[in-house]
Amino acid sequence: MKKVIFALAAALLTLASCGVGNVSVNSGKADKAYLSFSAAKSQDILVTVDGKEYKTETLKVKGWSGNKSLKDIANNVITLEPGTHTVVVKDQAGKELTSQKVFISAQEHKMIGLEL
Q1: E strands within the chain?
Q2: Domains of the chain (ranges plus CATH)?
Q3: Which residues sit opposite 78 in a β-bridge?
Q4: 54, 72, 106, 108: which could join 82 in a potential S-S bond, CB 3.0 to 4.6 Å?
C-alpha cells in the first residue's frame, strides 16, 4: 500500500511540475513600408504623404537597381505604415511633379518614377 501511495504522489508531483505557463514570442519583420523616388537625375524634392512633409532627393535611375539594400539608400527612403497613402511630390520651386494614391504592403519598397 505504501508503494502505491508513493507511486501516486510521485506521478502527481511529476505532472504538476510540467506546466507550460505563459509564453510570449515576438518574431517576424517590422510592420513598415518604404517609399522612394527615381528620376533621370538626382534632385531635391519635397514629398507630402497624408499631409506630412518630407524633404528627400530622387535616386538616379541609372544608379538604381532593385537589389540595393535599404541601408545603401537610407537617406532617400520614407518609412510609412502599410496601407493607402496620398502622395504629392513637388520640386524645390514648388512645382507639382505628381499627385497620386498609392498602396504599400508591409515590408514593400515602392519606387515612384518622376519625369523631371
Answers
A1: 33-39, 44-49, 52-57, 59-60, 78-80, 83-91, 96-104, 109-113
A2: 31-113 (2.60.40)
A3: 35
A4: 106
